[in-house]
Amino acid sequence: MKNQKFALIWSIILxxxxxxxxxxxxxxxxxxxxxxxxxxxxxxxxxxxDFETGNNDISLENLKxxxxxxxxxxxxVDFTNNKRPLIITLHGCAACxxxxxxxxxxxxxxxxxxxxxxxxxxxxxxxxxxxxxxxxNEQVLALVDLASTYLPVDTNKVVIHGYSDxxxxxxxxxxxxxxxFSASIPMASQYNTTNNGVGRKxxxxxxxxxxxxxxxxxxxxxxxxxxxxxxxxxxxxxVVAPGLTHNEPCEYASYLQDAADWLVNHxxx
Length: 269
Description:
The protein is of the alpha/beta class. The chain has a single domain, classed as 3-Layer(aba) Sandwich (Rossmann fold), CATH 3.40.50.1820. The protein is 35% helix and 22% strand. The protein has seven helices and ten strands. It has an eight-stranded mixed β-sheet, with helices on both faces. A two-stranded antiparallel sheet has the order 7-8. Helix 5 links the parallel strand 5 and strand 6 (183-187). It starts with a helix and ends with a helix. The model is unreliable at 1-31 (pLDDT under 50).
C-alpha cells in the first residue's frame, strides 16, 4: 500500500511538471539550434551560389547578424584551365549614408575599363562606412578569399581598384595587404603617404588616375604625396586627366583602360 501511495504521489508530481512545461513555464530545448554562424557557413553559402555570365547581385550573411551585399561580374569565357584576374572595385561616397545599390554602379567605369582583361570583378557595398574600417577590411579580405577558393581566380593577379572614397580604400589596401593584391588603381583619391614629411613606400605597384580640375581632392596634393612616396622607393605611375572634375566617374573610363594595359605590360609580364 505504501508503494502504491508513493507511485500515485510521484505520478501527480510528474503530471504537474509536464502541465507546467506545456504552459511555457519551462522552456523546451531547441534541438534544431545549430549554434552561432561560422566562417565555414559563409564558405558553404558562397560555394553553393550558381554564378552566371554577367552581373550576379549577392547578399551573404556575415558573422555579425548583418549582410555583405556585393556584385560579382563573371566574364563570358571558357574557364577550363583558364583562371582569370580578380578585380575588387570599391565605390565612392562610402560613408555618405545608407545606399543599398551603391555597389551596382559598375557598368560605365569598372566594366568598361577592365573589359579587355576578361577579369572576374567584385564590387562590395561599404554599408555606409569608410573602406579602411575593420568591418570593411574583413569584408574585402573575405570576398578575396571566397573568390580565390571557389571561383577560377589567378591569385597572382588580384587587383584593388576604387574611385573617390573607394580610391582611398585602394591606397589603404595597397599599403596594408600587399601579400594579397598585386597592384592598386586609385582614382580621384586623396591619401597622405607621408609621415612627418617623409614618404612611405607602398609595397606594390600603384597606378594613380586623377582629374586636373578635381576641386574636392586637389591634384597638387595628390602629386606631392605620390612624389614623396616615389622618393622612398614606391613604384607609382600617376596620370592626370585634363579638364576632368571629381563627380564624373564615367568620363574616366578610357584612363582605366590604359591602367588595364599597364597591368598586363608592367605588373603581370
